[in-house]
Every structure is written in structure tokens, then in C-alpha cells.
Design goal:
The complex is a heterodimer of chains A (328) and B (335).
Chain A (H helix, E strand, L loop, with lengths): L2 E3 L16 H10 L5 H22 L16 H4 L2 E11 L6 E13 L5 H9 L7 E4 L1 H6 L2 E2 L7 H21 L4 E5 L2 H4 L4 H12 L6 E5 L9 H4 L6 E5 L6 H8 L4 E7 L9 H11 L8 E5 L8 H18 L4
Parallel strand pairs in A: 1-10, 3-5, 4-6, 6-7, 7-8, 8-9, 9-10
Antiparallel strand pairs in A: 2-3
Helix pairs in contact in A: 1-2, 6-8, 10-11, 11-12
Chain B lengths: L2 H6 L19 H11 L5 H22 L16 H6 L3 E10 L2 E8 L11 H8 L8 E4 L1 H6 L2 E2 L5 H22 L3 E5 L10 H12 L5 E6 L4 H8 L6 E4 L8 H7 L5 E5 L11 H12 L7 E4 L9 H21 L4
Parallel strand pairs in B: 2-4, 3-5, 5-6, 6-7, 7-8, 8-9
Antiparallel strand pairs in B: 1-2
Classes of the chains: A alpha/beta (328), B alpha/beta (335).
Chain lengths: 328, 335
């Protein structure tokens, strides 16, 4: 099993060092109308360049733009679709992070590319391939308030979010994205809806062309769904091992036809995992995973950590991978 | 109702006892002083004098409005977890973490054995209680919430961190009770975030409250209340304070399935809205609760702390809440 280092998704956009506060200052200045949208964009791009470099220097094979331009993983998509307006704050799962909640007021439809320019701009400043992350249609549906009578239930709502994301995936593939991650954390809290997610992913998969599709699950135990997920139309499955204590045994026992994104490093706690804590799990499951390349990553996006700790987590993942490859 | 318990503690309250959840807005002079203190432009003594002045203002205001059980208003606190973690050995503050938009905060990190540093709230409770004859609640953040809102680099898992905190927080409760507090509120807004962890959250609450002579209230925003309701009844407290006025849950059905066995503080004011609820709105929310529980079991309060409102909004909301309660009391034949 080839094991690549892949950053999960988000990354802290500011740090405590003076120079790392520039985006926070610029955000406030932009809100007050003291700098133009172009000036703000320039600072966002410079921060993306900095964090892409941070990942590449740590040895990551696949980097992300850290979702630096996103307000949150829900409204960034939903708010850019027709038929959706954005409401007040809502806690994002059991984190201390808040998203703005979408309100579906009319038929949902895709207006045009949402992430394509973000992808191009990150790739332009990155020495490594950029992985793109989309929030999946089921999770978008779960976080939405339904006010439109056009939709009778969640499956109908998810179907139209899926339609929009199919177009987005097609646009991203056209722009050159080679690895597209679809995040569906909500599925783990409603395992009975896995079939609904599978239908959505089957439609999205039809637009992926030669790109690899990675389904990321986190903030819950994926073990009860493990066998079902093996039948999903994706190239790789991403798991949050901090919630799934029995998962590694399950993979070792049942194997995996798909590549796995091993979320073995806790993206929500500052404690640094030691290599010897993580390595046995990788060694145990590696012979049973047929899908390749697989990925070593964090349990979720790293934005729940302060910047200095997120950077250390990147370095620790690199140390684990080196040890796995026999170089540590 | 635990009215017998209150009576045994020497506290007589009218029907529909009124209170608030804890925090009030800080007056401008205190906001400015806190900013100056953070920049080391004033001494701690100067800040504390202003915190006392603001506490006295809120005690007077609560008395004027006619509330029955008062709070100190938390003029000395910033964040409800950071206040305790900054005082307790075993914690460090992390670098900045984003909560939403352009808002960032320093999240506590448990880096060693947590320890009770000596009283953290007793001085403020004594001061506030010394200003009024009405009972003032002791106010603490609970062990589960302190654990959940902190990083943990020391304890092997979340349960052991939570129980270690419970052991130390109990000492603060003991100190409050020893100082004379008869009513103690434990704030646990994180309680419902991971229903599978509720058993150890309850275990922790036993460690905090068991055997202590006080009337205990737990304040928990409802969150996944439907998933945890029946287990919440096992919490060793006398009163559950829940933000049920905005709940779309079928409480009637839940209460029928598992009869509610405690007193219920009914949150009737939306603390996230600028709108001052009319007495009629408050009354409708109380009546909704009266469909579920006998009047003897109900306390009336806002959904949460009022610190995010302006002083005028907070006062306006409480005045109307009290007006509604007075009418309900009159109709119930009590004053």
C-alpha cells in the first residue's frame, strides 16, 4: 500500500505571531470598508501561499488551500446556490465552531463554479497537487432549514443539492482537480440514511472523469457502516479514528478494496501523538488495504487547533509516514 | 417539587420562583476598564473596584425588578470556562482558535493534574449576598463543559479529565456551601453534545453534588435533548434549567414516556434576540410548560445568560417576565 501524506481540509488561517495576524486584521478592515475587495483578496492569497508552503515543507504530497476563503463548510456552498439564503449561527456538531445555517426558500440550482477559482489560485502557488474538498449534499441538506414547499422531504432536498454539486465536480475536473474529497460527517449521525448518501455519490461519481473521489467521514464512529461503505462508488474512504476505536481491527479483519484516508492524528486535540502510538495501527491494516495510494491525514480539518499546534501535527504525520516507509 | 428541600434550607419562595441564568451585560465603564487592564494600563485593584460597583448595580436592579433568586451577574468573568481555567493549576491557554467568521479565542489546554486553587467564586458570592436579603445563587461551570471546551494533553481520555475536574470543582461547591450558599447552579451547556458520554457526565455531577446541603440547579442548553432526556433525569440535581421555550421537540410525548421528576426552570426569554418579549409572550411560554408540569414544579427565567444584550434590553425583558409572573401568581391566588 502506497501511503501519501494528504492534508485533510481546513487549516488555521491566523497564528499568534504578529505576521500571522494579517488576515484577521484585513478581514476587519474589509468589513469596515477600509480596504478594497482586491486588497483583501491579495492578503488571502498570500496567506494561502504561506500555508500551502507550510504543508509542502512538512513533506505533504497533497495540500489544501486550508479553506481560507470559507466562512464555514456549510454556507460557503449553500449560500452560493440559487434558492438558498443564509441565516444565523448554528453550532457545528460537537465543536465550538459555528456555521451560518442555510434556509432553502426556493428550488436549489447551481449558478456557476464555486471552488474552481479557489482551486486554480491555490494550485498556482503550490509546488504540490492541491486536493479539493466539497461538503456533501447530505450534510448540506441536514444543516438546512426547509422553508420552500418545493421540497417535501430530505431526500428531495438532497437530490437537488446533489445536482448542484455534480456540476461543481464537473467544473473542478475540467480545471484539472485530480483528487476531490466529499465530506459527509452528518451520515455518521444518521446511519440509516447511508443509502441516500450512496445514491447522491453515484450521481456525483458520474461526473468525476479521471479524478479520484474520496468520501470523508468524521465526528462519529464509522465502524457500524464500514461494510456498507465498501460498496459506495468512491475510490477512497476517509475515517476519523478518534471516534472509531474498533475500526482498525475491522479493517484488519475484513480488508478494504478501496484506498483509505487514515485520520489517525487527532485534529481536535493539541496533544501530539507519538509515532509508536500510531504506527502499529498502520502496520496492522496496511497488508489488507488493496486500494492505492492510501492517505495519512488528520481525523478532521486542522482548523480546530491553534496554528502552531496544527503545524506540529503536520510534522508529526510526516514522521509517522517516514517510519512507516522504513525511513524513520 | 423540592420545595421541602428549600424550606429545610431556610428558603421560602413564592409560586413560580423567578431567577436569571447568571451573566448580565457589563456597563461601558467596566468594558473599558477590562480592555485597559488587558493592556496593563490599570491595576487589578482599580478593575476590581469597578467590578464590585457593577455587581452592586445588578443586585439593586434585580431587587427593583422583583426577582426572587439573584445572581452576581458575573461582572468579573470573561468566558465561563476561561475564568476557571485561568485560575486552576493544570491549565495553559492555547494560541488562537476560530469560533466563527473573524472571531477567535484562546482555548484552555489541560497540561497537568488539575487542582482547586482555593475559592474562585466565594468572594464574589459573599459580596453579592452581603448586598441583599434575597438568596443569591452560587454559580459554577460544570466539569463536563470545562473538559469539553478545553484541549486535553494530560489525561488519557475525556472521562478521566472530566472526573478529575469534578473532584476539584466539588471543593469549590463545598466552599460556597460553607460560606452560606443554599442554592448552587452548575452550568453545563456542553452536556448534550455527545449523548454517549452522558453516563460519565452524570458520574461527575454526583462527585460535585452528593451529600452537600444545597438546592442544585443544572443549566443545560437543550441541544440533543430528545436523545438524552430520560438519562438527564438521573442527574443528581433538584432543578433542570432548560431553554425549552424555543424547542420544537414534542416534550409532552417525552414527559409522558418518562415522567419529569424534578423542578424545571423554564427559559422564557430569548437571549439572542434584541426584541423585548411582551408579558403576553412570556405568559404563553409559561402556559406551554404548564401543559407539561404542575405549577409547583416551575421556576421562570431567561433561556441563558443575558450578557450579550444591552442593559436596557436585559432590564426590559426581565421587567416583562416579572409582570407576567405577577399576573400568573395573582390568578393562582398567591402574591
Amino acid at each position: 500500500m502506497e501511503l501519501l501524506l494528504a492534508n485533510h481540509s481546513s487549516y488555521p488561517r491566523i497564528g499568534d505571531a504578529a505576521g500571522q495576524q494579517r488576515l484577521r486584521r484585513a478581514y476587519a478592515q474589509h468589513e469596515r470598508g477600509e480596504i478594497t475587495a482586491q486588497e483583501f483578496e491579495k492578503i488571502q492569497t498570500s496567506m494561502i501561499q504561506e500555508i500551502v508552503q507550510e504543508q509542502a515543507s512538512a513533506g505533504f504530497d497533497l495540500v489544501t488551500d486550508g479553506q481560507i476563503r470559507w466562512y464555514d463548510p456549510i454556507s460557503h456552498f449553500a449560500g452560493r446556490l440559487d434558492g438558498v439564503k443564509i441565516n444565523g449561527l448554528l453550532r457545528f456538531f460537537d465543536t465550538n465552531f459555528y456555521i451560518r445555517q442555510p434556509v432553502v426558500v426556493d428550488r436549489i440550482s447551481w449558478k456557476g463554479p464555486i471552488l474552481v477559482e479557489e482551486y486554480r489560485s491555490a494550485q498556482a502557488v503550490s509546488p504540490k497537487p492541491v486536493k479539493v474538498t466539497l461538503t456533501g449534499p447530505y450534510t448540506l441538506g441536514r444543516f438546512s432549514i426547509l422553508e420552500s414547499s418545493r421540497y417535501r422531504d430530505l431526500p428531495e432536498l438532497v437530490a437537488d443539492y446533489t445536482e448542484a454539486l455534480m456540476k461543481e465536480v464537473e467544473a473542478l475536473v475540467g480545471a484539472g482537480a485530480a483528487l476531490i474529497q466529499v465530506d459527509e460527517p452528518s451520515m455518521l449521525h444518521h446511519p440509516g440514511d447511508a443509502g441516500l448518501v450512496k445514491v447522491a455519490l453515484t450521481r456525483i461519481e458520474s461526473r468525476k472523469g479521471s479524478a479520484r473521489l474520496l468520501l470523508a467521514t468524521y465526528f462519529g464512529d464509522a465502524a457500524p457502516l464500514y461494510e456498507v461503505l465498501q460498496g459506495f462508488p468512491v475510490d477512497a474512504l476517509g475515517f476519523d479514528f478518534t471516534y472509531s476505536h474498533g475500526l482498525s481491527d475491522l479493517i484488519a479483519r475484513l480488508g478494504s478494496d478501496k484506498a483509505i484516508a487514515f485520520g489517525l492524528i487527532d485534529g481536535r486535540n493539541t496533544r501530539m501523538e507519538r509515532t509508536e502510538e500510531v504506527l502499529p495501527t498502520l502496520r496492522k491494516v496496511a497488508p489488507k488495504v488493496k486500494g492505492s495510494p492510501s492517505y495519512l491525514t488528520s481525523s478532521c480539518g486542522l482548523e480546530y487547533l491553534p496554528r502552531d499546534k496544527a503545524h506540529l501535527k503536520l510534522k508529526q504525520m510526516a514522521a509517522v509516514r517516514a517510519a512507516f516507509a522504513g525511513r524513520g | 417539587m423540592s420545595r421541602t428541600k428549600l424550606k429545610s434550607l431556610g428558603i421560602e419562595l413564592p409560586i413560580f420562583p423567578t431567577s436569571t441564568v447568571g451573566s448580565f451585560p457589563k456597563p461601558d465603564y467596566l468594558v473599558e476598564a477590562r480592555a485597559k487592564f488587558a493592556k496593563k494600563k490599570i491595576e487589578r485593584k482599580e478593575l476590581e473596584d469597578l467590578e464590585r460597583q457593577a455587581t452592586a448595580f445588578w443586585i439593586r436592579t434585580q431587587e427593583d425588578i422583583g426577582l426572587d433568586v439573584l445572581v452576581d451577574g458575573e461582572m468579573y468573568r470573561g468566558d465561563m470556562v476561561a475564568y476557571f481555567s485561568e485560575l486552576m493549576p493544570g491549565f495553559e491557554q492555547s494560541g488562537l482558535v476560530r469560533s466563527y467568521g473573524n472571531r477567535y479565542y484562546h482555548k484552555p489546554i489541560i497540561v497537568g493534574e488539575v487542582k482547586w486553587p482555593g475559592s474562585m467564586t466565594v468572594g464574589w458570592w459573599r459580596y453579592a449576598q452581603g448586598l441583599t436579603k434575597r438568596p443569591v445563587k452560587g454559580m459554577l461551570t460544570g466539569p463536563y463543559t470545562v473538559m469539553d471546551w478545553s484541549f486535553n494533553e494530560h489525561y488519557p481520555d475525556r472521562r478521566s479529565a472530566c472526573l478529575a475536574l469534578a473532584r476539584e470543582i466539588r471543593r469549590e461547591v463545598e466552599a460556597l456551601v460553607e460560606a452560606g450558599a443554599k442554592i448552587v447552579q452548575i452550568d453545563e451547556p456542553a452536556l448534550s453534545v455527545r449523548p454517549e458520554e452522558l453516563p460519565f457526565a452524570i458520574e461527575a455531577m454526583h462527585m460535585v453534588t452528593d451529600g452537600l446541603p444545597a438546592y442544585f440547579i443544572i443549566h443545560a442548553c437543550y441541544g440533543a435533548f430528545d436523545k438524552i432526556y430520560s438519562q438527564m433525569l438521573k442527574l443528581p440535581v433538584d432543578n433542570l434549567d432548560l431553554a425549552i421555550s424555543h424547542s420544537t421537540l414534542n416534550l409532552m410525548e417525552m414527559f409522558r414516556r418518562d415522567p419529569f421528576t424534578k423542578d424545571l426552570s423554564v427559559g422564557v426569554l430569548d437571549v439572542h434576540s434584541h426584541e423585548v418579549e411582551t408579558p403576553e409572550t412570556v405568559r404563553a411560554r409559561v402556559e406551554k410548560a404548564l401543559q407539561l408540569l404542575p405549577k409547583e414544579s416551575l421556576w421562570i427565567d431567561p433561556d441563558c445568560g443575558l450578557k450579550t444584550r444591552t442593559i436596557d434590553e436585559a432590564k426590559g425583558k426581565l421587567i416583562n417576565m416579572m409582570a407576567a409572573v405577577k399576573r400568573l401568581r395573582a390568578e393562582a391566588g398567591a402574591n
